[in-house]
Every structure is written in structure tokens, then in C-alpha cells.
Design goal:
Largest sheet: 4 strands, mixed
Shape: elongated
Radius of gyration: 26 Å
Mean pLDDT: 81
Helix content: 10-25%
Low-confidence stretches: 1-35, 283-289
Number of helices: 7
Length: 301
């Protein structure tokens, strides 16, 4: 969650990109002047995609869903590649859709479909990393009173070639966050990639092992009920019959309803209670048959 978010205006840097079939514009919204947007933990936001803590921890925002295909780690690799940061100090966080709307869709489209999370967003997230790196280098150069062209960045360390002076990202993050972002940034040639395409440890493994990972199914709101649904397995089939009384008395069950022409749903206090009740409909041929459907060329299915 981001705090102290300024109003978005034309003065903010916007990277435009056309997503497949949508003409989507995705922004990197940076405050100007003395204000610095900070993440909830107090770290400085350099771009909407990158926040850096004083201890050099790099927080990379991920706006795609991790569904087991590696999007979270892959997208972080892309940002980190252009950022030239220490991969060992990279962590991730998810901006909320509400925060994105509040910030004029700063992170663009949150949808994820298989490999599209990588294929349709790699360019603008890389630009987010490259923009942050450019601003960090400029902040260091300004502090030293030297041209930014004489400075380089690698592994979260900025070096002035002529004098040999160095500083870290965490030390210049506040100053970098106040700079006007460049109008455009050059991306690395693929032959120079150090992280993209390389095998690295996934960033989401530990949270999944410890149970700290929050999934969509974990969402809970006051008074919220959950439903499990079973649709006719035959295309064009319709519900013929179902006996709600067979499961209505099971723990947590609130309703048993027909959905449209082809499905039956159980609504309960929890999703597991709903699924358990739905699975408990007796099999066909017993006193209370399973939901049965009428197919175009078959009496039941």
C-alpha cells in the first residue's frame, strides 16, 4: 500500500504502450519538487515499479498474478536487469487494484493469462527499471558535482569512473525520487543481459512453504458467503432436476440454487463447506439423485 500519493498530472512521466487489442497506457508516476512518495515501510519510490529502502533493499511492484508459471520472479528479473541492482536484495509486493485506480492506473492492466503476463508487459516494466537506474545515477552525479555520463551502476552500487568514488542506491534514493524522470531511456541489448533468461531461485517459494502467501481464496469480507458451482458437462445441456434438501442441512450451507439453465450452486459460509456439500449430492440411482441435466441428444448426463 502506498501513502502520500500526489495527484497525477501532465507533469508526471507516462510510458505509453499498446497492449494486445486494448491500446493500454501504463504510467510511471513520479512526484516532482520536494515531495517524495513513500511506501508504507518508509522506502522511497523512484518509479511506480521500484521503491528502495535505506538498507539497499529493492522493492519491485508486480501487477500480474502468479499462477505457478513464474510471472512474479520473471517480471522482477526484467525490472532488476535494467535497474542493475543486487538480486540478492530484491523483494516484491503487489499494488492493489484500488491503489492503481487512485493513481490513474499507474500499473495498467492487472489481468494475467498464461504467458501474457511476461509477453505483453516486458517492455514497459524494463523501462521502469531503466528509468529508476538513470535517476539514481543522476542523483549520485549531482551530489558529486560530476556529469552523469562519467558514472556507472552495477549491483546496486554507483561508481564515478574518474575519481573512483562510490555510493549505494539506498543512500541516494531520496534525492533520486525528487528528480524529473528522463523522457526516454535506452534498454539493454539482449546480449548484455545478466538476469533475464537465467535460472534463479523463485521469489515466491518461501512464502508458499511457510503459509504466508495470501491467495485469492483467502479473501474475507464482512458477511461474505462463498459458492461452489457444478455445470452440465455436455455442451448445450440443461438442468433436469436436483434435490436441495439432500445437502441443505450440512454445516455452513445457506442456499442451494439453480444457476441459469445448466448449473447448480451451493452457497455456504466458506468455500470448502460449499464444495463439500456440492460433492455430497448422492449419486444417480440413490434416493436423492445428483443434479441431472438434459442434453440435446441424451436424456441425462
Amino acid at each position: 500500500m502506498i501513502t502520500d500519493t500526489p495527484k497525477i498530472s501532465r507533469r508526471f512521466f507516462v510510458i505509453g504502450t499498446a497492449a494486445v487489442g486494448s491500446g493500454l497506457a501504463l504510467g510511471l508516476s513520479i512526484p516532482f519538487g520536494g515531495r517524495v512518495v513513500r511506501a508504507q515501510d518508509g522506502s522511497s519510490e523512484i518509479t511506480a515499479w521500484v521503491a528502495i529502502r535505506p538498507d539497499d533493499t529493492v522493492v519491485i511492484r508486480i501487477a500480474r498474478s502468479e499462477m505457478g508459471q513464474g510471472s512474479l520472479t520473471g517480471l522482477a528479473q526484467m525490472v532488476a536487469e535494467e535497474l542493475e541492482c543486487d538480486w540478492a536484495k530484491v523483494t516484491t509486493e503487489y499494488p492493489t487494484p484500488g491503489e492503481s485506480v487512485k493513481r490513474k492506473r499507474a500499473w495498467g492492466d492487472f489481468s494475467t493469462g498464461g504467458s501474457r503476463g511476461i509477453r505483453t508487459s516486458h517492455e514497459y516494466v524494463r523501462k521502469g527499471g531503466a528509468t529508476a537506474r538513470t535517476m539514481l545515477v543522476q542523483a549520485a552525479a549531482d551530489a558529486w558535482g560530476v556529469p552523469a555520463a562519467e558514472c556507472s551502476a552495477a549491483n546496486s552500487v554507483i561508481t564515478h569512473g574518474r575519481s573512483g568514488r562510490t555510493t549505494t542506491y539506498g543512500k541516494v534514493a531520496d534525492a533520486a525520487a525528487k528528480l524529473t524522470p528522463p523522457a526516454d531511456v535506452a534498454l539493454k541489448d539482449p546480449k548484455d543481459w545478466k538476469l533475464i533468461g537465467k535460472s534463479v531461485k523463485r521469489l515466491d517459494t518461501m512464502n508458499k512453504l511457510t503459509g504466508a502467501q495470501v491467495y485469492g481464496a483467502d479473501l474475507k469480507l464482512p458477511g461474505m458467503l462463498n459458492a461452489a458451482i457444478k455445470d452440465c458437462p455436455v455442451v448445450g445441456g440443461k438442468v433436469k432436476s436436483f434435490e436441495a434438501a439432500a445437502v441443505r442441512g450440512m454445516p455452513g450451507v445457506r442456499h442451494v440454487v439453480q444457476v441459469g439453465d445448466s448449473a447448480v450452486a451451493v452457497v455456504a459460509d466458506t468455500w470448502w463447506q460449499a464444495k463439500t456439500a456440492l460433492d455430497a449430492f448422492p449419486s444417480r440411482g440413490t434416493r436423492a439423485p445428483m443434479p441431472r441435466c438434459r442434453a440435446p441428444r441424451s436424456p441425462t448426463c
